[in-house]
């Protein structure tokens, strides 16, 4: 719409009461948007107001020629102080629609609006102002330059006041939120940002500044200064070192404030000291003008009020640091690593893998060289892992000798992980060559919860530790099903054991010379529904893994001693019973005394109780086993080594063991009629004789096998050829039929 001659000249009407401009130099701008479909209105408005300075700032004009164009501009430029808006443009109410969209759609509540129209009387002035939240509504003919200047000054002052109030509210809310949530992970940063915003609001400025402090993020003395809170264009630098700002003046001013422990009020900026002697910070605010004396007093009162709050937040942050950082390696601990797993899975899972690194036989280092050397080994490994993977992966210490890594799968390959351990580690004066086992899990193969991911990696690690072919394993979903099935079986085993459902069966052992039963081996049986039994090969490893074997083992000893006593009352007072013993039982400090007490409680001959151990038990922790067996041997209890020949036992350990008997494993008995099997079986039997030990061959199922081991000089046999394992009532019947020693 083309304006008439009066409209074109309205800005140049003379008026006695011209609004005076403020004399200060411009140190910034007020952004003004002119919205009008008449090009000349834009031109004359800009010319008339070009030199106007309001509250120390010049006006910066922006232009839109339709309602839609105005909305697009405001959508991308929210820092507009006011809009000079024509009512009638592409439609008679285009300007009013723009106002409605500004408030309802863009939610620009601080922006001030002055409506102008060339059609007086179009809309009732009072209702428009009330309904649409505008500052003024004038016809173009009545807007002289003086009146327009007054409208602009009033609008900008209103804009500044509303903005200050809002900044006050936002700043205070941040401080309140931080104080109410001190244990939240980002509470210190939120509190600091609130302080910056609030101080800027107190002195009537936009929140442009930073709060910095020295942070000891590794638990040691540190001179590094970090940005804890920031507002305005400094916000992206939160949590960064101060030097990352690349602004020498800010760095200089903050260092000066922290060293002098006092406020610095300058011409361009202000640096405020916050805190106490033990917890201090510096708040840098861009002021671009000196702070007035009244504002300085207001700021000092504010700082004194929040200093205690800042100190409290800092103390809680240090507590949180202790809760999430491993004190030895200064890396994330298990709790923090779980959060890292969760965050990585949610936001960057593709191509990422989680790894657990378990140091093999780490306890040997601690036990043999001392805990200090063990700690130095862990630190050396940490430094090497950082050197290998620090730029692309995140590291944490998950357990005593277990480390975690999260990073790209092309970096965390089994081959690269193995390279970490190629060279020895320097720990004190020792160069330690250690190996490790790795569990890996692709994050896309796991869940979103960090704890679940860690569980999956542990499943892979445990699978790798049981493997004899390789020292790593990738998690597969079916592994969890297997684990769940094992746990279900273990729960049932616990339940059935507590309800006394396990049974002890006995397999007779026969002398080859007398053909009489001389003893028996006690064997666990676990009955289930429909007369079926779960194999000991399945549930014994579960019991050992869970530690339940200690309780079960005590029960077996109790039953065996009770059976020896019962057999004696039946006239079989010279039959021994052999009981298998596992490593978890030896690790129990009360094991030896428990065995001796059980023998004494039933008042049986200790020589009739024989403990069977396997080579793997001996080799696991030789010292513990040998010491325990020596004490048991001194108490008169017999000792046999089971499955001899299938492990990798050291003959030096074998010589130290207080043995009475060697059992030839069924694997060699099965092949005893073949040349290779015959040689091994003969060697074991000869070794037993040289050491002064009795020998027994297990798994004898044929006459040929019996004849072969008899010809080699074996003393006793055990196997299906003579008898299968049987419950107590069947054992008594078997003895009645085969042993003439039974008395009337």
TrEMBL record:
<dbReference type="GO" id="GO:0000160">
    <property type="term" value="P:phosphorelay signal transduction system"/>
</dbReference>
<dbReference type="InterPro" id="IPR050706">
    <property type="entry name" value="Cyclic-di-GMP_PDE-like"/>
</dbReference>
<protein>
    <submittedName>
        <fullName>Response regulator receiver modulated diguanylate cyclase/phosphodiesterase</fullName>
    </submittedName>
</protein>
<feature type="domain" description="GGDEF">
    <location>
        <begin position="350"/>
        <end position="477"/>
    </location>
</feature>
<dbReference type="Pfam" id="PF00990">
    <property type="entry name" value="GGDEF"/>
</dbReference>
<keyword id="KW-0597">Phosphoprotein</keyword>
<dbReference type="GO" id="GO:0071111">
    <property type="term" value="F:cyclic-guanylate-specific phosphodiesterase activity"/>
</dbReference>
<dbReference type="InterPro" id="IPR029787">
    <property type="entry name" value="Nucleotide_cyclase"/>
</dbReference>
<dbReference type="InterPro" id="IPR035919">
    <property type="entry name" value="EAL_sf"/>
</dbReference>
<dbReference type="InterPro" id="IPR000160">
    <property type="entry name" value="GGDEF_dom"/>
</dbReference>
<dbReference type="Pfam" id="PF11849">
    <property type="entry name" value="DUF3369"/>
</dbReference>
<dbReference type="InterPro" id="IPR001633">
    <property type="entry name" value="EAL_dom"/>
</dbReference>
<dbReference type="InterPro" id="IPR043128">
    <property type="entry name" value="Rev_trsase/Diguanyl_cyclase"/>
</dbReference>
<feature type="modified residue" description="4-aspartylphosphate">
    <location>
        <position position="86"/>
    </location>
</feature>
<feature type="domain" description="EAL">
    <location>
        <begin position="486"/>
        <end position="739"/>
    </location>
</feature>
<feature type="domain" description="Response regulatory">
    <location>
        <begin position="31"/>
        <end position="155"/>
    </location>
</feature>
<dbReference type="Pfam" id="PF00563">
    <property type="entry name" value="EAL"/>
</dbReference>
<dbReference type="InterPro" id="IPR011006">
    <property type="entry name" value="CheY-like_superfamily"/>
</dbReference>
<dbReference type="InterPro" id="IPR021800">
    <property type="entry name" value="DUF3369"/>
</dbReference>
<dbReference type="InterPro" id="IPR001789">
    <property type="entry name" value="Sig_transdc_resp-reg_receiver"/>
</dbReference>
């Amino acid at each position: 719409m083309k304006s008439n001659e009066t409209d074109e000249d309205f800005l140049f009407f003379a008026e006695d009461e011209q609004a005076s401009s403020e004399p200060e130099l411009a140190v910034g701008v007020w952004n003004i948007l002119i919205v009008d479909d008449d090009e000349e209105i834009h031109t004359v408005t800009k010319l008339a107001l070009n030199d106007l300075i309001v509250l120390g700032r010049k006006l910066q004009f922006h232009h839109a020629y339709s309602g839609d164009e105005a909305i697009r501009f405001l959508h991308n430029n929210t820092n507009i102080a006011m809009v000079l808006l024509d009512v009638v443009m592409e439609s008679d109410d285009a300007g009013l629609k723009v106002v409605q969209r500004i408030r309802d759609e863009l939610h620009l509540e601080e922006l001030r609006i002055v409506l102008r129209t060339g059609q007086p009387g179009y809309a009732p002035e009072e209702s428009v102002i009330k309904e649409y939240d505008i500052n003024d509504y004038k016809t173009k003919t009545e807007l002289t330059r003086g009146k327009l200047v007054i409208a602009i000054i009033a609008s900008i002052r209103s804009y500044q006041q509303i903005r200050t109030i809002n900044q006050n509210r936002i700043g205070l809310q941040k401080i309140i939120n931080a104080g109410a949530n001190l244990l939240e992970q980002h509470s210190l940063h939120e509190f600091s940002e609130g302080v910056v915003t609030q101080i800027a609001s107190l002195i009537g400025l936009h929140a442009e500044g930073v709060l910095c402090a020295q942070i000891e993020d590794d638990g040691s003395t540190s001179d590094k200064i970090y940005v804890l809170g920031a507002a305005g264009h400094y916000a992206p630098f939160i949590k960064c070192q101060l030097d990352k700002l690349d602004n020498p003046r800010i760095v200089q001013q903050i260092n000066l404030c922290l060293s002098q422990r006092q406020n610095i009020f300058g011409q361009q900026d202000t640096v405020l000291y916050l805190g106490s002697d033990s917890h201090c910070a510096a708040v840098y605010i861009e002021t671009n003008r000196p702070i007035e004396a009244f504002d300085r007093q207001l700021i000092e009162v504010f700082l004194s009020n929040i200093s205690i709050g800042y100190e409290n937040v800092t103390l809680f942050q240090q507590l949180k640091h202790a809760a999430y950082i491993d004190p030895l390696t200064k890396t994330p601990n298990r709790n923090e690593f779980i959060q890292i797993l969760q965050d990585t899975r949610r936001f960057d899972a593709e191509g990422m893998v989680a790894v657990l690194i378990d140091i093999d036989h780490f306890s040997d280092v601690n036990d043999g060289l001392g805990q200090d050397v063990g700690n130095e080994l862990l630190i050396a490994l940490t430094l090497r892992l950082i050197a290998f993977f620090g730029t692309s992966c995140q590291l944490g210490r998950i357990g005593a000798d277990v480390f975690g890594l999260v990073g790209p799968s092309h970096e965390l390959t089994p081959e690269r992980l193995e390279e970490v351990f190629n060279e020895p580690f320097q720990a004190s004066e020792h160069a330690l060559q250690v190996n490790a086992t790795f569990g890996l899990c692709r994050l896309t193969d796991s869940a979103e919860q960090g704890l679940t991911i860690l569980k999956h990696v542990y499943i892979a690690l445990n699978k790798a530790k049981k493997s004899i072919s390789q020292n790593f394993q990738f998690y597969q979903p079916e592994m969890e099903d297997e684990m769940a099935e094992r746990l279900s079986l273990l729960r049932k085993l616990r339940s059935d054991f507590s309800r006394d459902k396990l049974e002890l069966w006995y397999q007779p052992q026969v002398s080859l010379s007398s053909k009489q039963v001389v003893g028996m081996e006690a064997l666990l049986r676990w009955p289930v529904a429909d007369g079926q039994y779960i194999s000991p090969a399945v549930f014994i490893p579960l019991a050992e893994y869970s530690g339940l074997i200690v309780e079960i083992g005590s029960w077996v000893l109790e039953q065996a001693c009770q059976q020896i006593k019962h057999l004696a009352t039946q006239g079989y007072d010279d039959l021994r019973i052999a009981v298998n013993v596992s490593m978890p039982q030896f690790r129990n400090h009360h094991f030896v005394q428990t065995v001796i007490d059980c023998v004494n409680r039933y008042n049986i001959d200790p020589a009739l109780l024989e403990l069977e151990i396997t080579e793997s038990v001996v080799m696991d922790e030789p010292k513990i086993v040998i010491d325990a067996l020596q004490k048991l041997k001194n108490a008169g209890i017999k000792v046999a080594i089971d499955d001899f020949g299938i492990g990798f036992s050291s003959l030096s350990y074998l010589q130290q063991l207080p043995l009475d008997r060697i059992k030839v494993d069924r694997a060699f008995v099965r092949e005893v009629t073949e040349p290779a099997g015959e040689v091994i079986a003969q060697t074991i039997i000869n070794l037993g004789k040289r050491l002064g030990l009795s020998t027994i061959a297990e798994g004898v199922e044929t006459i040929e096998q019996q004849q072969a081991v008899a010809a080699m000089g074996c003393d006793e046999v055990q196997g299906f050829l003579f008898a299968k394992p049987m419950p107590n009532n069947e054992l008594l019947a078997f003895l009645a039929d085969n042993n003439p020693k039974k008395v009337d």
